[in-house]
Amino acid sequence: MRRLLGVLRQDQPSAATPLGLMAPGTGTPAGTAPQGAGSGTGGPGGALPAVPPPSGGAAPLRPQPDTGDIAGLVDQARDDGLRVSFARVGVERRLPPGVGLTLFRVCQESLTNVRKHAGPRPAVTVLLRWGEEEVELRVDDDGRGLAADGSPGPDEPPPTAGYGLLGMRERAEMFGGTLSAGPRRGGGFSVRFVIPIPRAEHAGQNDTQNDTRGAR
Length: 216
What we know:
The chain is of the alpha+beta class. The protein is 22% helix and 19% strand.
């Protein structure tokens, strides 16, 4: 079920699904040809052999992103003009399958929300904290926040966070974690995402790394 949801939520869905089915609005399934389209191994009107995609047309296979790729997200946000500080606290260690990808996606979605809602030149802080039995991700900004988008009247409900935060909560529930998101006191918006992880074998020695380069 998680794999199917991942396919449905891809930013750029392909014409054919991983099961070989035809996506709506496209031609024929991959590896087949329309009836009567020339000759192949099955004769006139038969299925043609699958044709490999042209060189450079298919994206290379890469490992799924994890917590080690969050620094790259921060660098990308800086390249986009955001003032971002990144801090890592604690000793990083191996995570259960899917947890690292989930933390990466939550950070990615949080930074996207900052671009959409925080207004001009917000200051952003990304914190990744490794505890003995949990890992915490925080993304805080001092911008306008979601509540500043639009000007609802007295009888209109305040704007909602949309599907981005809903997806984060779904990811948190999937791994038994928690997500809290809302306006910060004094302005801005905060996202706090906590996932329980197996207890560290050698706890007690914490390493703190701060990366404030680019916070300009």
